[in-house]
Here is the input.
Amino acid sequence: MSITESAGPDLTLSGRPASSSLRDVRSLSRKMVGHFVENIAPCRTLPGEALNGDITTITGLCLELAVGMLDGADIPEKTLHLRNAAAGWAREGIPIDTIHHAVHEGFKVGFDIVVANATAADFDSVKDISRRLMEILDIITSTVSRAYVAELRVVVGEHHTAVHTLTSALLGGHPTFTMARECGIQIADSYSVLAVAIAAHPDEGNPQLDGAVVARRKLRRVQSELATRCGDSVLSLLSVDGGTILLPSAPPDDEALDELADSLARAAQVPVVATVIAATPTEIPAAADRAHELLDMVQRLGCVPGLYRFDDLALEYQLTRPGPGLETLRTLLDPLDEHPELLDTLRRHISTDLNRQRTARLLHIHTNTVDYRLKRIGQLTGLDPAQSAGVWYLRAALVARSYRNPEDASSFGLGASAPESPSEEVIGAQAMSAANRNSGDRLR
Here is the structure.
């Protein structure tokens, strides 16, 4: 294949059309592909049929486009072929940086060929040819980029839809192995099912900003962090407020899960609370329900941000199960209904592990006032906060009461206004969570 000379080329070099040295497209395209293989490492891994077929054909197409533009010809048909090729590369997963590197290497080779016989008298012509070649390079790279990105969005959208459908099927109790194969994802033998709550970002409530945009950006950061840490095997259904994550073959006691929860909080720039339950594929629906029950309880009890396992909350979980015991526990704090400052003091005192000084600092009162209020709580409820049995019942009553009146539960921030400095709040919350895990006292 070769190009016949145009009737009136507008760029010449030493009296000949500047495009004349590029007209033997067939042999030149093969030479360039050989140069790509020798000088661009990723090209060496491409299959032979791709190099000898599609890659050589598109290289020839780019040469034809260059010849046409050097001769001042119209090139829309060739750019259409180039768009189609770039879309195919995107679907085949050929990295775009490899494509652009090959294009630029091809232009280096082509430029050397065009100006190989230039003399000092051709200086002005070489300048004009260089400008035209830069225009050609701009057209090729922009055409490839637009088509590649557009097709990649379609591919990613299809993958996202398929993963979304597969995750929904697993959560619905339908482990469809055929669907998993179509997604290119293998269903694991076991999963860690995470229920996740993501706090609102402070800027979501800023009247000068679009709160929906802020929330979506927060979600994208979380999804990006999740993909970076867990790869394509992770399955998730997440909204700006949280959702469900399925991690394959990750035991719930794995410390990496704690690191994942912390990293998601850093990415979101707000507190993140999560709970985890182990499950086989068929157990995922029940495990997801249990994980979200635990998450609801963690939020009601005002626990510090971090990852919680069932073992951490077994007592609190059992206390919240329906029955006469729950009903009795709920009424133990009724005498404090008319004394909200006493109820708040009790919550704070238990959250500080009965530390009078810390309780006083949190409430901005004197320690003598704390002592007085604790004494009044004992008088009104008949449960002495200074005795171990009294503290046990008071704490259990707070847990049970949180399910009667959600507003009675202490709130860390997932349902309240976000802190002014989310990064510092998240760091502090993570330190508190780690300290609580070490001490075994997870309830604030």
User: Anything to note?
Assistant: Residues 1-8, 407-444 have pLDDT under 50 and may be disordered. The beta strands are 12-13, 16-17, 191-198, 235-239, 242-248, 272-279, 306-309. Residues 170 and 284 are 7 Å apart (CA to CA).
